[in-house]
Write a structure and sequence with these properties.
Structural class: alpha+beta
Shape: flat
Bound molecules: zinc ion
Strand order of the largest sheet: 6-7-8-9
Length: about 575
């Protein structure tokens, strides 16, 4: 009888950790028992039985809603609810879009290599693809004349869908989809990602490269082995496959290997790892959460338990990357709260956030450190930040920015938000942006950043509302005097003064503006403008009111909204 032992994996650097987390998630999803003790993951060797199935099932389960397979088969609902009496142009457009999409996918290289694996004569999808034709309506034709053509197309589509849903077909096509959508963004060159193997069964390729040698390795007497695994120090017998593996296939995902300046990666380049670490590294894509071309991994190596928890964010095909990031921060905050309750004395280290942008060939990974203070700001302003997630602003004819990304990016890099606040207020004056509430959110977040992280003087949050209200009241005075056409000129001058941090110019403009309105400058405004650090926060809050965003209105709304 073979003695079944336990495999133990200990947390290390981020790359290895991503692999361990991925492995843990794969095993957990497939119902295997895993133990998380401190920073160690433990599971029985027998969990590696049929691991190739578990590996692909994990990705298919998580990413199916994003796949082209899903998009193609989801048209079945349309076919089932099709009624010729209610046929309209909208349906025809939808059908034509679908046909165009499906034709492209069915003849793509990835699908073609899938057909080679399925090796089945029942139906040839490349033939079926040719039968799909867009519906064209001539001017003389009535919509009802198109019914026979449409019915014929729906019949072809149904046949394609039924075939794609067959278990053995689905298994291969979905595996091809997730290899392309997720796995290939993290590693390449070996196993099913070796170009020569693209027409081989990926499950078998995975097994033969990553798991088949592990059992032998585990059973071997290792005390005479003279080499050590670069990653986990385990003994290895030879510096060649299958006794050990190199890391170049993973390197490609990291830093540009052609640049000799990267010591870390050169170090990896001539290093050898044991078969178990080889398996761990193959699971890196499962450690990340990926949305389209972007992925995130949180290296919170406090404990194995937390590490897995914070990297297990559920997503669906409507989730944007910004939403995923936003959700991830709250998982971190929750996990910190939890571990603080459990171990009151434990100091929380900084947390490393690793982001992948696979469209960036040269530098696909970015690393950010999230300090506890920054996390506090993110948590305290949760509602405000969440509202920014979907806020996309057109800044010029072809240039769009996402406000969440802009604000979080500055926070990460210890930069204040004044430039983006200024830009948004200018866009508002130019009639190109009207969501002034977002500007207020950014002013508040930034005010906390200035006080909490930069250690400078911040403005009491209720004062921000009051000052904004003063700006709004001055606007009313101008409106009553029918001089509203002067407001934007004043705003431009004030914004310019703030941009160049010119306090005198700001004050002069302000004094003139009040004089024209026949009013004295309110004392509270004068007081608030006294500190150097406060000029910009106070100034922008005032301009926000002057441009028409009422402070009073916000006072009630914000307080309710931010608990
Ligand atoms: Zn190892």
């Amino acid at each position: 009888m073979i003695k079944i032992g336990a495999i133990k994996l200990e947390l290390s650097d981020w790359l290895y950790n991503a692999g361990v987390v991925g492995l843990a998630k794969i095993l957990e999803t497939s119902g295997d028992t895993i133990k998380k003790v401190g920073n160690v993951l433990e599971f029985n060797e027998e969990a590696l039985q049929d691991f190739e199935e578990k590996y692909f099932n994990y990705f298919i389960d998580k990413y199916k809603p994003f796949t082209s397979w899903q998009r193609i088969i989801s048209f079945e609902d349309e076919i089932n609810s099709f009624e010729e009496n209610t046929l309209n142009d909208a349906f025809i457009n939808k059908l034509n879009d679908y046909i165009e999409y499906t034709k492209t996918k069915l003849k793509s290289a990835s699908y073609k290599s899938g057909y080679a694996i399925i090796d089945d004569n029942e139906i040839d999808l490349l033939n079926e693809e040719k039968k799909l034709k867009k519906i064209k309506k001539s001017k003389k034709q009535l919509i009802s004349d198109l019914v026979p053509m449409i019915k014929e197309q729906l019949k072809y589509i149904q046949a394609i869908i039924s075939y794609l849903k067959r278990d053995d077909v689905k298994k291969i096509i979905l595996a091809k989809n997730i290899i392309y959508d997720v796995i290939a963004k993290f590693w390449s060159d070996v196993s099913f990602l070796n170009k020569n193997n693209s027409k081989n069964n990926m499950y078998e390729e995975y097994k033969s490269y990553f798991t088949s040698n592990i059992m032998t390795y585990l059973k071997d007497e290792k005390h005479k082995y003279k080499y050590q695994c670069f990653s986990c120090d385990a003994p290895i017998s030879k510096l060649s496959k299958p006794a050990s593996y190199d890391l170049t296939w993973v390197n490609k995902m990291g830093v540009d290997m052609s640049r000799k300046t990267s010591h870390f990666w050169n170090f990896y380049g001539d290093s050898f790892i044991c078969p178990i670490c080889n398996l761990v590294y193959s699971c890196i894509p499962a450690g990340f959460t990926v949305i389209r071309n972007r992925g995130i991994f949180i290296n919170e190596n406090n404990s194995m338990e937390n590490m897995i928890k914070v990297n297990n964010t559920s997503i669906n095909n409507n989730t944007s990357f910004e939403e995923l990031e936003e959700k991830s921060y709250f998982k971190i905050a929750d996990s910190i709260k939890q571990s603080e309750i459990e171990r009151a004395s434990k100091e929380i280290d900084n947390i490393q956030i690793v982001k992948l942008d696979s469209r960036n060939d040269r530098r696909p990974y970015t690393f950010n450190i999230l300090s506890k203070k920054k996390l506090h700001i993110i948590v305290n302003h949760r509602k405000r930040l969440r509202a920014l997630v979907n806020a996309t602003v057109k800044v010029s004819s072809n240039d769009y920015i996402n406000l969440y990304r802009e604000v979080i990016g500055r926070l990460y890099n210890n930069k204040n938000q004044f430039d983006i606040i200024n830009k948004l207020l200018i866009l508002n004056l130019d009639g190109k942006f009207n969501r002034l509430g977002y500007v207020k959110s950014i002013i508040n977040i930034n005010n906390d950043f200035i006080g909490g992280i930069m250690g400078k003087q911040s403005v009491y949050y209720k004062d921000i509302d009051k000052i904004q209200q003063l700006g709004y009241e001055l606007r009313n005075i101008y409106e009553i005097k029918k001089a509203d056409n002067k407001i934007s000129g004043i705003c431009y001058r004030l914004l310019n003064a703030l941009k160049t941090k010119n306090q005198n110019r700001f004050m002069d403009t302000l004094i003139n503006a009040y004089m024209y309105g026949g009013k004295q400058i309110p004392v509270i405004l004068l007081d608030a403008l006294k500190g150097d650090d406060k000029l910009q926060t106070v100034g922008y809050a005032f301009i926000l009111g002057l441009q028409g965003e009422s402070g009073k209105l916000n006072l009630g709304k914000e307080e309710k909204g931010n608990e």
